[in-house]
Design goal:
- By secondary structure, the chain is α+β, with helices and mostly antiparallel strands.
- Helix content is about 40%, strand content about 20%.
- The strands form five sheets. The protein has a five-stranded mixed beta sheet with strand order 12-13-14-15-16.
- β13 and β14 form a beta hairpin.
């Protein structure tokens, strides 16, 4: 199998190349989340919060309030946990991470903060039991004062996050994007709380879901989707292959040290002849999560530069890869200037000359993005190899 065919299989599994609905409602949003399995959460809001962007890339413009009602309100079929990193996921998937919760709890036995704050943790459990779901800042305690710089946590917030990792506490929605914490039994259905899934069974199911979401990939690709490590991955992979759910294939262009990598394809993965359409990918989109996979699949070297000091940034602060007809052709650094009502393209780059032929389509995509953001104009700063051509296309 050639690399272009493998790329099309992977993108089709992620929901690209499908006809778009004329109107996007909760049914389309639920179906897209089900296909992805998880939506990564990130607080950066210079352009748009990350969990909104994968759905826009696949579905086009939609009412973000609909997604808010699905994932930010309590008891809606979604919950938060450390799946890839912090993610929204279907509530039925929560028991698949019980082994991870147990591992976090076991580590706490030697964790200096947890050992020193057992009384605080007991007090937090009692507060939530007595008062129900609460924001961290609503909990009255002498220790509920932020430590250190503005992003530091109070001891109350620290304790809630420990309980969250252990599975004792979960989220009952969010308020202005702050987690509203609740005891798991206050939010989750009884059958979810009582589900007993072994570590081996959980790894096999998570690997199966990752393979379906990827369509095709290496063991490392599949494992990274839910951040799985250890011998359980190899065992689960072998079991899925023996069951015929994963089929070994060869992609000669996917190499390491001059040797072709072992590759598997999910048995239900579609193999379209072409992938059409243009989309912006969030830095936290599953297509580009695993940067080595992105390089191998698209010939596109990508890193997020948010945490890189400004003088050392190559492409910009919040840079999104641009997908056109199944290839990553360029990247744009975007900022939603909501006060001025302008979508600012702070830099635009072509990838080895691939983007210039698509400048008009990229301009149309940016207009759609601006409209979805409720912004009127698109302004291109003269920075990057694609900026002049993109600015002309937007006139």
């Amino acid at each position: 199998m050639g690399a272009p065919a493998a790329r099309r299989i992977a993108l089709a599994a992620q929901g690209f190349g499908r006809p778009r609905a004329t109107a996007v409602g909760t049914r389309q949003l639920n179906a897209a989340i089900d296909r992805l399995g998880i939506l990564q959460i990130d607080s950066v809001n210079v352009f748009e919060r990350s969990h909104y962007l994968p759905l826009f890339a696949r579905l086009g413009g939609y009412d973000r309030a609909l997604l808010d009602r699905l994932v930010l309100a309590p008891r809606t079929g979604y919950v938060e946990y450390w799946a890839h990193v912090a993610c929204f996921l279907p509530v039925e998937a929560w028991p698949l991470f019980r082994w991870r919760m147990d591992a976090y709890r076991q580590r706490a036995a030697t964790d200096p903060w947890a050992v020193a704050n057992t009384a605080m943790l007991d007090w937090l459990r009692a507060e939530l039991a007595a008062n129900g779901p609460m924001l961290a800042r609503e909990i009255e305690h002498d220790a509920n004062a932020r430590r250190g710089p503005w992003w530091g946590w109070s001891d109350v917030k620290e304790g809630l996050e420990y309980l969250f990792r252990w599975g004792e506490v979960t989220t009952a929605g969010r308020s202005r994007f702050e987690r509203r914490y609740a005891l798991a039994e206050q939010v989750l259905p009884r059958h979810v709380l009582d589900a007993d899934v072994s570590k081996a069974d959980a790894h096999r199911e998570l690997l199966r879901r990752a393979a379906a979401a990827h369509g095709i990939g290496t063991a490392k690709d599949f494992a990274d989707y839910y951040r799985l490590v250890g011998p359980e991955v190899r065992t689960a992979l072998a079991e899925l292959e023996d069951a015929g759910e994963l089929v070994r294939v060869r992609v000669p262009d996917w190499e390491r040290d001059g040797r072709a990598l072992p590759v598997w394809r999910h048995r239900d993965a579609r193999a379209p002849r072409r992938i059409e359409g243009a989309a912006l990918l969030s830095p936290f989109d599953p297509v580009v999560w695993e940067r080595r996979r992105t390089d191998r699949m698209f010939g596109f070297t990508y890193r997020i530069e948010i945490y890189t000091p400004a003088p050392r940034r190559v492409y910009g602060y919040y840079v999104l890869p641009v997908l056109v007809d199944g290839e990553l052709v360029g990247r744009v650094d975007l900022k939603s200037d909501r006060q001025a009502g302008v979508l600012r393209v702070q830099a635009a780059w072509s990838e080895n000359g691939r983007a210039e032929p698509h400048a008009e389509r990229m301009a149309a995509l940016l207009r759609d993005v601006a409209a979805w953001q409720g912004l009127g104009d698109v302004d291109v700063v003269a920075r990057g190899t694609l900026a002049p051509e993109l600015a002309r296309a937007l006139v």
